[in-house]
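Title: Comparing notes on inverse folding

I've been comparing how different people in this forum approach sequence design from structure. To keep things fair, I'm posting one structure and asking everyone to reply with a full sequence. Here's the target:
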């Protein structure tokens, strides 16, 4: 009998040990994800931009083209370019891209016809305006892209001002895992028009797998042009079909309001947490009042000033910097009092000092 019992113990012992090891590994993974989220909440205290600049070039005219007026982040970046360009003594015209590739192409053609010196593409996908960008280059009009990732292929774009989008997607997964204590059921809203958003979604999907108790329930596809009409209904339908959903990640904060409408229609207010990207003014307000749980914030105005700095380098005949910009995880614990997240740092003073202007 003793021999039989010992044999039984030996048979089940590997399973028991395997379970213990598996649980310990899952705990370690969750702890690492929580540590990454905590690190990303910290205040930015150091300058993350260039430390030298060519002489400021004089009398330049710039066109800043937004993705759409609904894309608050790209509007903020374009307005930052306008403010930075005017600080440099330049003339900057901002054009609403209206979420339409035809409008984007037309705006680039207008800049070329007006003999502009430079163009800032604020979240306008270069792949959708490639021919126009090539014509701009042939006309000696320098182009700087904001938000979009650097492509693997050669491009006529001079410089790329953007955060590290895959790192942002992974960070969002870290926050979801931490906030849910490793038990989230997540719906991801996608906008496949923009390369940077696809990078975020891919990285999120890979990172959330490290949370053994988390589950990616599904996805919803939208575009900037369709989110107002379609998104609330799509979200309501998903929540009705999948009542376990308790987190929804949106591709940009502009979509969060319409997701909230869908949550309300489904009768799930207070039971689903919404998180997004950009850190726009209405988002910070929403985090304060509890209608949005978190955002991974970009200093959009900072990116506009950085685009102007890159254009000045182009005009001076120098190389691009292509320095990634900082970003920050913001939730209820560290939501600022400012209208949108501005980077925690006086970037305007840094650029003015680099350019030698007051």
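Reply #1:
Here's my take.
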């Amino acid at each position: 009998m003793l021999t039989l019992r010992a044999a039984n113990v030996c048979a089940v012992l590997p399973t028991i040990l395997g379970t213990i090891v598996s649980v310990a590994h899952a705990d370690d993974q969750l702890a690492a994800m929580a540590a990454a989220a905590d690190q990303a909440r910290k205040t930015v205290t150091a300058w993350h931009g260039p430390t030298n600049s060519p002489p400021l070039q004089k009398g330049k005219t710039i066109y800043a083209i937004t993705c759409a007026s609904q894309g608050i982040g790209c509007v903020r970046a374009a307005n930052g370019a306008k403010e930075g360009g005017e600080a440099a003594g330049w003339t900057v015209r901002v054009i609403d891209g209206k979420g339409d590739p035809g409008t984007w192409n037309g705006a680039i053609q207008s800049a070329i016809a007006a003999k502009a010196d430079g163009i800032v593409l604020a979240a306008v996908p270069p792949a959708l305006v490639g021919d126009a960008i090539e014509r701009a280059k042939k006309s000696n009009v320098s182009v700087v892209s904001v938000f979009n990732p650097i492509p693997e292929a050669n491009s006529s774009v001079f410089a790329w001002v953007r955060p590290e989008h895959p790192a942002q997607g992974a960070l969002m997964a870290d926050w979801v895992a931490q906030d849910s204590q490793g038990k989230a059921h997540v719906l991801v809203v996608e906008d496949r028009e923009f390369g940077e958003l696809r990078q975020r979604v891919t990285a999120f999907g890979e990172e959330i797998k490290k949370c053994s108790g988390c589950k990616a329930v599904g996805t919803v596809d939208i575009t900037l042009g369709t989110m107002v009409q379609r998104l609330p209904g799509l979200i309501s339908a998903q929540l009705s079909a999948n009542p376990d959903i308790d987190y929804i990640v949106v591709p940009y904060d502009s979509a969060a309001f319409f997701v909230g409408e869908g949550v309300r229609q489904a009768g799930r207010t207070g039971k689903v947490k919404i998180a997004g990207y950009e850190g726009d003014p209405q988002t910070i307000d929403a985090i304060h009042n509890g209608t949005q749980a978190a955002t991974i914030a970009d200093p959009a105005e900072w990116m506009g000033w950085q685009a102007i700095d890159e254009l000045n380098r182009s005009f001076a005949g120098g190389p691009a910097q292509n320095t990634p910009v900082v970003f920050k995880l913001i939730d209820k614990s560290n939501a600022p009092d400012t209208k949108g997240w501005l980077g925690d740092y006086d970037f305007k003073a840094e650029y003015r000092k680099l350019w030698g202007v007051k």
